[in-house]
From TrEMBL:
Transmembrane segments: none annotated. Keywords: Antibiotic resistance, ATP-binding, Nucleotide-binding, Transport. GO terms for biological process: response to antibiotic. It comes from Actinomadura spongiicola. It holds the Pfam family ABC_tran. GO terms for cellular component: plasma membrane. It is found in: Cell membrane. This is ABC transporter ATP-binding protein. It comes from the Bacteria.
Length: 309
């Protein structure tokens, strides 16, 4: 069954004075999907999110949230979306439970207080004052407040920045439960692992443009598998063999010269075989040898580098 997307962005452009921060981007997020916007610093993620949240009108292009213009039809859209605010909005002297109660006063048909506190994994902190919460716990309280009105669409701007790995995993679990419940989520993040873990689909933004988008598998496919090893001291890169048509590159990692082959298609196993046979015949030791599929990090770094060239 075809349903209308919860979020659609077509040819969006945003300017600050003469500077074009978003230079004509298009994407759609289906109902119940989690879509991640990744990007280098200043790529335009927050500007895009703020436009979708209705804070600013599109300079050009069309933006729809739940079928409506989030800026012009703000009154209709706002009650149906959740925005995770930065922690600035809290009163430090209120407890977690009091904070939720306070926000319930502004929210149409809010969740029950204890349900919201439990959803954010803060039940054992309900009586604790906000000033005594850790940074990660404050972010989770932000999340509880964003979820108070059972939003159809949830916007999360870097929801786990500054969290330790355990707090981040707890937050991921909460977000996954929200998505399993049918909520559409648009998330920005600097953590590629977060996108890998959570996103149904993602887009990588660079200087206001979408450089690549799709599922993690789609985005990573075509970037090739990699074979790497420490450059043997007595060899030049030109003396290394070609592996199924792939020539080696040199990079420096952790102060060491590293040879890198990018092998396309199904050439990883065969390329590795050729390399090991060559090393055996030439009596070369391949220290630090690794063979692995491309990661989202490889794509991210190369997308940013490639677009800068
Ligand atoms: N109010 C503003 N006035 C002028 N320029 C702005 C304003 N807000 C953002 N910019 C510029 O627009 C560009 C995009 O900013 P934006 O905050 O959307 O990027 P981002 O992808 O969220 O970045 P980051 O990952 O660093 O948070 C940046 O170059 C930024 O300096």
């Amino acid at each position: 069954m075809h349903t209308d997307p919860s979020i659609s962005v077509e040819g969006l452009r945003q300017r600050y004075g003469d500077f074009e921060a978003v230079a004509g981007i298009s994407f759609e997020v289906a109902a119940g999907e989690l879509f991640a916007l990744l990007g280098t610093n200043g790529a335009g993620k927050t500007t895009t999110l703020e436009t979708l949240e209705g804070h600013r009108a599109a300079h050009a292009g069309t933006v729809r949230v739940l079928g409506r213009d989030p800026h012009r039809e703000r009154r209709a859209v706002r009650p149906r979306i959740g925005i995770m605010l930065q922690e600035g909005g809290f009163f430090a002297d209120l407890t977690v439970a009091e904070t939720v109660d306070h926000w319930r006063g502004f929210t149409p048909a809010p969740r029950d207080r204890d349900e919201a506190v439990a959803l954010a994994g803060l039940s054992d902190k309900a009586g604790v004052r906000v000033r005594q919460l850790s940074g990660g716990q404050k972010r989770r309280l932000d999340l509880a407040l964003a979820l108070l009105g059972r939003p159809a669409v949830l916007f999360l701007d870097e929801p786990t920045t500054g969290m330790d790995p355990e707090a981040r995993r707890t937050t991921w679990k909460i977000v996954q439960e929200v998505v399993a419940d049918g909520t559409t989520v648009l998330l920005t993040t600097h953590y590629l692992e977060e996108a890998e873990h959570l996103a149904d689909r993602l887009a990588i933004l660079h200087r206001g443009r979408i450089e690549t988008s799709g599922t993690v598998e789609e985005v990573v496919a075509g970037y090739g598998d990699r074979i790497t090893f420490h450059m043997p001291d007595h060899l030049q890169v030109a003396e290394l063999p070609e592996l199924r048509g792939a020539r080696p590159d040199m990079t420096v990692t952790g102060g060491r010269a590293v040879a890198v082959y990018t092998v396309n298609g199904s050439g990883l196993q065969a390329g590795l075989y050729d390399l090991l046979r060559w090393a055996d015949e030439e009596r070369v030791r391949l220290d630090g040898l690794e063979a692995r599929s491309a990661s989202l990090e490889d794509v991210f770094l190369r997308t940013a580098e490639g677009a800068d060239r």
